[in-house]
Amino acid sequence: MVLIKEISPSYGFIVGNVLGRPYAAPIFMFCMGVGIVYSRRSQWDIMVKRGITLFLLGILVNVFEFFLPYYVCGTLLGSWDIFPIAGGLLLFCVDILAFAGLSFILMGILKKFELSNKKLIVIALLMSIIGSLLRGTDLGIPVLNLIFGNFIGTAGGFTAFPLFNWFIFPIAGYI
Fold first, then answer.
1. Strand partners, 159
2. Are 105 and 48 a contacting pair, CB within 8 Å?
3. How far apart (Å, rounded) are the C-alpha atoms in residues 170 and 156?
4. What's the pLDDT tens digit per position in 18-72?
5. CA 98 to chain centre
6. Domain residue extents for the chain
7. In the chain, fewer beta carbons within 10 Å around the N or the C end?
């Protein structure tokens, strides 16, 4: 018989409320950068291919997370507004997997140029500043907002992790 011990309340709070909630995404991104350092397959071209695959998987996840429930609720229940997808725009929501894909692509490109750690930090800081200044920008055309939302987090609120704002974390882990 296996006995399962309960974890202490303080340990449970630290894991659940500190590491598991507000810091989960930055920790994941930091670990992604660390993982690149220790990967045997971290050549620039492999990283770009892996990034493209991750980005496409992010869109596929959105299909299963947003589009299919919307379609099922509309078809089976006859109510298309139970699970709204904002005119299909949520299908292109930038979540952590899409961010990871774009990060791998950018890390691969930067790796090809063999930039120093100081230059990587400067690039990441500049991207973060630009991303913060441009966050929520409305380009006036929904398709442009979807495309540039991947990078700066345009108007519409469909971008949780725009590349420019969050790229500093994988760089920190890489360095």
1. 94
2. yes
3. 26
4. 666 778 889 999 999 999 999 999 999 999 999 999 999 988 887 787 777 777 7
5. 5
6. 41-174
7. N
